[in-house]
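Protein record
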Amino acid sequence: MSSDSSTTYALVSHESAVEAIWALAARGWKGMLDDENVWLVPAPANCVKTQGEVKRLAAEVDLASLGINRTPIDLLVPDKSCYSRGKRARFHVWGDFFAPHSFVRVHERVLVSTPYFAVLQLAMWCRVDRLSQEEARRSAEEDARLRAELGAEGKGSTAEELVRWENIARLVRAVQVLSDFMGTYRYVPAEADGTGEQPDIAYGTLPIITPERMMGYLSEMGGVRGIERARRVADLAYAEAASPMETLLALMLSLPCRMGGFGLPRPQMNYEVQVDSQFRELSSQETMFTDLGWPDPKVAVEFYGWDEHFGAGPAKVASDATRANSLTALGWTVLHVTYEQVKTVAGITLLARQVAAALGVSLPEPSDLELVWRSRLLALLLPKTSRQL
């Protein structure tokens, strides 16, 4: 990409890039994200890097039409000398090289990080040594509220523990975003078709990226700072979840207690069950898929969401019930879950105990601090959508 020395380009990153990627995919621009030849990077001197330049860009370019609605907008800058604080933009310093497939051009002056690069940015944005005064105050207040609700003893988390949670939350957010990108659902901005009436989530879509291509991108990035944290994110993420709630369930159940999870064995998402011919008369289908599956010892968790099931009418509900009965007849333990059951810590704790019993494993006992983090983790992972799931 050639750069006119008089033109500045916005390098959209982090959460702003995630927002824009969903808008791109919803508008049928996914091919741009898949283009293996994408390597659009201006010289550092041409980057938008001051609050004033952001203001001028916003006046000249309809950022909302590109799916960029966050304020402040997340932007990359080449070094710390470009860093500034303000309400319009939050600048992130990127001093390493850019691998191919790092940006897609959505406007002559706007480059959006690809899903691969956005995940890497979120993964590398997970280590802080201290919180700002305002962040520390909010975190301490939330900590005190949760401790009171849980009846946890003690005087509250220390400043060091609040920082530890912030680092966990940033890491988990990267894991969630990668799982979303690798799932068969998609967040759809309400304004994507100009009507404001589209659903918040579309189901049955192709994944935006695959685990293989994500790992290939990380390999291309070589030894950039923080690459090991990004590989950790890739190890923790799930592919092929069919809904945000399936992603939530998998992460809550399998993340270790020290991150707020329940520490259970990792399930397989949409696990394929092939019915042997000798048992075919017991099953409604030759092939079935479980939402979350542990093939040994045949345990399945099935999530029943409003959009996918009740909204589809009685035929869909009957089909799901028949499939669950077929799995049970074939020796599977099938646990049925709804949003109302797991939207609270008490509800999802009961589910975790039931899964552990079915798996024949002991549920790790969390500390008071880990119980607080479990509440925070659930709040972090619950899908932010106006629709009932």
